[in-house]
């Protein structure tokens, strides 16, 4: 990972020192405080030497430096926000000025033209009729995933849930496979109208391969090229420039993922047998004929592909956290099962219209998203304009990271024992419940466009599993139950 540091740092340092001095001169309010760091490398070493997950390290630094602190990463200011107040004020209320992405790595490899999640917000990209790619993508998603559209996907979600329940009967130990399959199949069906094969489906294999490659690049700590923009000019064949080759290779691998399912839909359309899907409906709405090769066709393809990348793995993460929490807390499980039975009767299974009658089930979903947020550092944003917050200067171009973990583990918001999984914190007798942990789905104008669809998937699968099964602890060699040990990865996918 750090091998490119072997590059000639001397040229780079001259460049950065000049930039730093220039910045310092223009600055009026000062940057927020932060760990001291080294002259050129800034806080890279502090990050590399951390003892814990990045989001926990940031929460600890917030104790020392304040809820809004600064890192210096190769001279590029990076502002870490660690309180609900700062995050909502900056990333929600002032969202217009904070919805860009730090995307040089992706700009280089063309990915920021492809993927919604790394697309630049308002400038720096070719656009149609002055609308930036990001805005066009978001509008396209909005037209398919607003609340009124969601019931159209219910049957797909019901079928996916039934498949998991069937498979759990014969192969309960393979629950991770079933959950991966569920999350992939529901998204692929909605987006492309494609029905996954029960096993070894090529589209799922392609997907998880691509997502694995993207992981390290999406990780906020790995936006190296943003931190050291001059690396852009390093030729990809230089020793040490592997990060750049990786981005290119990822782009090549991923092209398949973008083109193959689209070709499949196109053939179906031509043969008059394509199932209605996000692709066919969006093409129809925009008056596009599949295969015409226009920029607008490419835009729809990219949206579809972005959902294919962003949807499944995040859903899987939340569902696996749920399984873990149920394993560790049999008492929570029993209570949820009693609640479900009281609503749907013995042997019944819950449906979407039962959701409002299942407050404890909903509290479990909220607690899953709070206890182990899927993206604890969300996806990094970037400041478009100079700004001042709480007397501190936030310079244009700064990377701005909302530490979702710290909000979710703030006792002032969620009550005592925040480290503990306890749905009761959302069931207060006085009714003064903490809010639904919205920030698990991001902020302001970059908030997750798949949020409501994802919540429906989580609700139906979690409640149906509880209605049908009891999740038990694994057994050791002597047949005794033990608490599983769990590691979370710190990649942002
Ligand atoms: C439990 C499941 C999910 C979670 C926790 C989740 C969370 C997130 C988060 C935190 C972001 C970044 C927001 C920000 O930068 O402020 C995001 C972006 C995104 N999500 Fe989700 N997501 C989930 C499921 C889905 C699904 C099912 C889809 C598609 C059907 C989807 C599509 C997207 C897209 C396209 C973006 C990029 C938006 C942008 O950059 O403007 N997500 N998601
Ligand atoms: C965004 O920044 C511009 C320029 O500094 C400022 O005029 C505008 O009020 C800001 N908008 C928001 C929502 O903070």
Write the layout of secondary structure elements.
Elements: H1 9-26, H2 44-48, H3 54-65, E1 68-73, E2 76-81, H4 84-93, H5 104-108, H6 111-114, E3 127-128, E4 131-132, H7 133-145, H8 154-170, H9 175-192, H10 202-218, H11 224-227, H12 242-270, H13 278-285, H14 295-328, H15 330-344, H16 359-371, E5 381-382, E6 387-389, E7 392-394, E8 399-402, H17 404-408, H18 411-414, H19 451-468
Parallel strand pairs: 2-8
Antiparallel strand pairs: 1-2, 3-4, 5-8, 6-7
Helix pairs in contact: 7-14, 8-9, 8-19, 9-14, 10-12, 12-14, 13-14, 14-16, 14-19
Structure description:
The chain is mainly alpha-helical. Helix content is 51%, strand content 6%. It has 19 helices and 8 strands. A 4-stranded mixed β-sheet has the order 1-2-8-5. The chain has a two-stranded antiparallel sheet with strand order 3-4. Strands 6-7 form a two-stranded antiparallel ribbon. Helix 14 runs parallel beside helix 19. The longest helix is centred in the middle third of the chain and has 34 residues. The chain is globular, with a radius of gyration of 23 Å. The two termini are 18 Å apart. The N terminus is likely disordered. Bound molecules: protoporphyrin IX containing FE (HEM) and 2-acetamido-2-deoxy-beta-D-glucopyranose.
